[in-house]
Specification:
The chain starts with a strand and ends with a helix. The protein is globular. A ten-stranded mixed β-sheet has the order 2-1-3-12-11-4-5-10-8-9, with helices on both faces. Strands 6-7 form a two-stranded antiparallel ribbon. The protein folds into two domains: 170 residues, Isopropylmalate Dehydrogenase; 113 residues, 3-Layer(aba) Sandwich (Rossmann fold). The longest helix has 17 residues. By secondary structure, it is an alpha/beta fold. The chain has eleven helices and twelve strands. α1 crosses α9 and α10 crosses α11. β1, α1 and β2 form a beta-alpha-beta unit.
């Protein structure tokens, strides 16, 4: 059985970590047909914009993409390419798993999955300058949009994820003590959804600042976290820091009719072409993609191979204290998978 998937290598270190990831996927023995497309800065010269219609058309056809990091041009009138992709395909849930890989650090045994609402909140980009006392730049406003529909579908996704993956608890993170309407709506909907899962999945509630502290003080208490867009963006990076940084942080953007899996870190142009980037995040995102395709056994093989490569073989890229190149690390993981 073969799978047709849109492949967006991306900018900066993107092509390097993509090449390593494809070697690992090839080692699974599964068959893939890759439709290579451009995005970000790599698309500007040939397509005139960071998100070409050909790329969108490809994802509309395949309903699935593996994506390296994309750079949004600064000062050119372009909004975030990643945000545009999420909106175009209504990828409402951002799934960010984080698990301790390198033992002996300050935080051992972390296994947290953060589910972030991906389309609403302050990131809708409804901003404006407000004229005040004749000064057009004296005050700025930004609108946070939270809907019952958007809240319910992402919270329900978190609970269903917990059920499917044998998770016991969902922590709903909010700021309803201050943002009584927007965060309050998210919390109210969460309580309604949680009632449907009573006896199967537990729910607790945390104010976002308390959650940020608890993640540092006692991260072992967390299982699945669900929260709004801005809070999820910040907390997911904090959680990544607990397990070794963004180089080990995969992400999946999930919708009702498609998904895009990605390395959540940036394009790192300062090290592009040097062969020292850690491809683990994109390889782990590829493992998430295998799960999504129903190839969970292959996804588990990839995850186990990364752990064995780093821990048992001690093949590590520079950010993990080693000397392996991007290609060497990818080859080592691929050997373990095969």
């Amino acid at each position: 059985m073969g799978y047709e998937i849109t492949l967006i290598p991306g900018d900066g270190i993107g092509p390097e970590i993509t090449a390593a990831s494809l070697k690992v996927l090839d080692a699974t023995g599964l068959k893939f047909s890759w439709d290579r497309q451009l995005g970000g800065m790599a698309a500007i010269a040939s397509a005139g914009g960071p998100l070409p219609e050909a790329t969108l058309a490809s994802i509309r056809r395949t309903h699935l993409a593996l994506k390296g990091p994309l750079t949004t041009p600064v000062g050119e009138g372009f909004r975030s390419v990643n945000v545009a992709l999420r909106r175009e395909f209504e990828l409402f849930a951002n799934l960010r798993p984080a698990r301790t890989i390198v033992p002996g650090g300050r935080y051992d045994g972390i296994d947290i999955v953060l589910v972030r609402e991906n389309l609403e909140g302050l990131y809708v980009g409804q901003e404006r300058w407000v004229e005040r006392d004749g000064d057009a730049h004296g005050q700025a406003e930004s609108v946070a949009v939270v809907t019952r529909r958007g809240s319910e579908r992402v919270i329900r996704y978190a609970f269903e994820y917990a059920l499917t993956h044998g998770r016991k608890n969902v922590t709903l993170v909010h700021k309803a003590n201050i943002l009584k309407l927007t965060s309050g709506l998210f919390l109210d909907v969460g309580r309604e959804v949680a009632a449907e899962y009573a006896g199967r999945v537990a729910m607790n509630e945390l104010i976002v600042d308390n959650c940020a502290m608890q993640l540092v003080m006692r991260p072992e208490q967390f299982d699945v976290i669900v929260t709004t867009n801005l809070f999820g963006d910040i907390l997911s990076d904090e959680i990544s820091g607990l397990v070794g940084g963004l180089g080990l942080a995969p992400g999946g953007n999930i919708g009702a009719h498609g998904a895009i899996f990605e390395a959540v870190h940036g394009s790192a142009p300062d090290i592009a072409g040097k062969g020292i980037a850690n491809p683990s995040a994109l390889i782990l995102a590829a493992a998430m993609m295998l799960d999504y395709l129903g190839e969970a056994a292959a996804g588990d093989r990839v995850r186990r191979a990364i752990v064995a490569t780093i821990v048992a073989d001690r093949v590590r890229t520079r950010d993990l204290g080693g000397t392996a190149t991007t290609e060497e690390f990818g080859d080592a993981v691929a050997r373990r998978v095969a």
